[in-house]
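Give me the fold.
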Amino acid sequence: MKLKDILILGLLLVAAIGVIGTVSAAQDVTINDVHFKVLDGFNLHESDVDTTHRDEDGTDTEDINGTVVDSKVTKEYINSNGDKLELTVSVLKNGKKIENITASGYTKKSINGKDGFFKTEMDDGRQQYKFQYLQDGKLVKIEAPNEESISKVMA
């Protein structure tokens, strides 16, 4: 091989590695100042913002499994296998902090050094793993196809 051919092959190899690295790199996502690493292969499917609404009795309510919040931002990601990754961060108005979680049906658990509440359940015929915890007075909820994914998503 000539030097020119070797240089061209080297450049092609470097370019290919750059493309592969870009495609498989985890995405950094921030929701309400909480940072996540979206898993490789997951693409944004839906993004939603919910704020308080009036119930029939005239009270403002929005909640995550019974924990009252003023607003929540949810981002749902799906991979090519149809696995779902859902990230939700909920807050109270005027910088107030959520002090505790109402987590009916969950068990206490620590993942990645975060104390919170964990459960599994079927969703659209697939097992979903759910973990919620408090971070800086915000309620964070992660739903993933397995517990390992929850750990990887937590930045």
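Helices lie at 3-24, 147-153.
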